[in-house]
Amino acid sequence: MDRSTDVLVIGSGIAGLTFALKLAPRARVLLVTKKERADSSTNYARGGIASVLGDDDRFELHIQDTLVAGAGLCHPRAVEVLVTEGPARVYELIEWGAQFDRDPGAQLSLGREGGHSRRRIAHAGDHTGHEIETALLAAVEAEPNIEVLEDHLALDLLVTPDPAGRPVCTGALVLDHRVGETSVVRARFTMLASGGCGQVYRHTTNPDIATGDGIAMAYRAGARIANMEFIQFHPTALFPTEDPAFLMTEALRGEGAELRTLDGRAFMPEYHPLGSLAPRDVVARAIDHEIKERGETHVILDVSRIAGEKLESHFPAAVEACRDRGFEPAEGIPVVPAAHYVCGGVLTDSMGHTSLAGLYATGEVACSGVHGANRLASNSLLEAVVFADRAARLVSYRLQTDAAYVAPPLRRELPKPGPEDPGLPGIAARRAELRGLMWDLVGIVRSDERLERAEADVARLAAAEAVRWLSTRWTADGAELRNLLQVAELIVRCARLRRESRGLHYTLDHPHRDNERFLRDTVISRAGGLPW
Ligand code: SIN
Q1: 321 FRET partner, CA 20 to 30 A, in 30, 114, 311, 397?
Q2: What is the per-residue pLDDT across 353-386, written as a single tens digit (0 to 9) for each?
Q3: pLDDT-based confidence at 530, cuts 50/70/90?
Q4: CATH of 231-340, one of 1.10.443.10, 3.20.20.70, 3.30.1330.60, 3.90.700.10
């Protein structure tokens, strides 16, 4: 069934829900989400939300910490917005029902994580994302103006020329994958809040839904994409990794946990003066180096400095995860790095607007300029709420002021039911192959030769998958693989363009920073060629 609405939101994590809640008093909001509404990366966020909330903290300090982590590529204005508007957004989450831990005096209990010069992480144990997601979903439930469609996967954005011939996003083509039915959702404004793309790597802390759908769709629709080479690998995923890998929150290191080799050497002070609390890119590379050098599979997170009671009360999810797997955390937690967050994405301005009229983006899908070449821990939930709020303010204004643009009827050929199985290798096998090659060739340490091989391998898989996409019935699995292949291509392309090492992008062939040539974003868009 085709639909039309004022505002279409794609994704049901913190960014999409916040944006929908802000607009609901003024507009009809249709929110599509590809699985159940609570299936989002937000639910997996452990550490918390960073903001200037403590008496000893100042905006300048949070700004400075964010800029330092970003290795020269943060957009200073965007960072200023993030930091100065942050506290109000955190208190708004509390008003919506999120309960963060408090100390005995009822003040917010603030945690510390790598790269932060002050305690500024508001958290709910080590399951903060789940707490926020639950509160926001309850608030959405109470809003009659928000309709949520579960099991609806956006396949592509609709782009139509406006009366002056400029491309405008006018909604999306959506697949109800329970019944295999494709329909059109027309919208005056479309918000991409569909999260990241960790599933493009073999080992990731991201859930299986994190397949880069929004970035891939925006690219195919002609929007600008930036900085896809900056993939953050979280240093401490529980080993052996599962899918998704369980995240041992950085807050453990903030409270004194230390990384050691299997024979007990505390190796991080050899790599950085901040030791185990060094920036994430440094820690992940150090672990990668130790593991390869010593021929071992993992390192140990030693939590013995966190006294028993505190470990249990502050980190219940971490403790439970260890016990569920048959060991006590006090014995040492086996960890390895895993893909965690994409700092690049759909390029936006500081109001969440993309380069395509009618299309907005916020949260992990977006590149708002706040993370630069490396994201500071716990700045991502903050980015989502701050920029969702700003985008909602802009859209709300435009709903009242812009002439209602009525898109011309879409001439569309929906796919004819094709054969279910044209004898191609299985989608799951191709997804696994892609994830393996991205891990091996485009991981923590890169090189020209590895990136060249990755480009050829991704192109070969994409060409073969295009045949499936164009000749068979569309499925959610097929659509996700199409998007994963698209984002893999974008990551490799951006990585090949950046012939230096900076922040999260480290390549053996260009191991130093080159400010003369590369103190800038890597911005790409679709030029020529038909998308599939
Ligand atoms: C963590 O808890 O270590 C993750 C927090 C983040 O990625 O910002």
Answers
A1: 114
A2: 999 999 999 999 999 999 999 999 999 999 999 9
A3: very low
A4: 3.90.700.10
> Do 472 and 478 contact (CB within 8 A), yes or no?
yes
Residue of 14, 43, 46 best suited for mutating to test ligand 1, as the one with most atoms within 8 Å of CB:
46
CB of 129 within 6 A of ligand 1: the answer is no
Domain 3-229+343-400 fold is FAD/NAD(P)-binding domain (3.50.50)
> Is the minimum distance from the CB of 378 to ligand 1 under 6 angstroms?
yes
Distance CA 166, CA 168 (A): 6
Do 3-229+343-400 and 231-340 agree at the fold level?
A: no
Q: Is 236 in the pocket of ligand 1 (CB under 6 A)?
A: no
For ligand 1, what atom is nearest to the CA of residue 126? 2
| Per-residue pLDDT reduced to its tens digit, 389-414 | 999 999 999 998 876 655 555 555 55
Among 36, 125, 69, smallest CA distance to 371 is for 69
CB-CB contact of 493 with 182 (8 Å): no
**What is the sign of the dihedral through the CA atoms of 80, 346, 488 and 338?**
positive
Residue of 112, 120, 253, 280 with catalytic role = 280
For ligand 1, say whether the CB of 205 is within 6 Å of any of its atoms: no
Structure tokens at 426: 């299985």
Determine the atom of ligand 1 nearest the C-alpha atom of 377: 8
How far apart CA 236 and CA 333 sit, in angstroms, is 9
46 is catalytic: no
Look at the chain and count its residues: 532
With H, G, I as helix, E, B as strand and everything else as coil, classify residue 386: helix
End-to-end CA distance of the chain: 24
CA distance 149 to 26: 20
- CA 210 – ligand 1 centroid, Å: 16
Q: Closest residue (by CA) to atom 4 of ligand 1?
A: 47
User: What tokens does 291 get?
Assistant: 């593991």
Nearest to 212 by CA among 479, 501, 446: 479
The answer to whether the beta carbons of residues 390 and 352 sit under 8 Å apart is: yes
Amino acid at 50: A
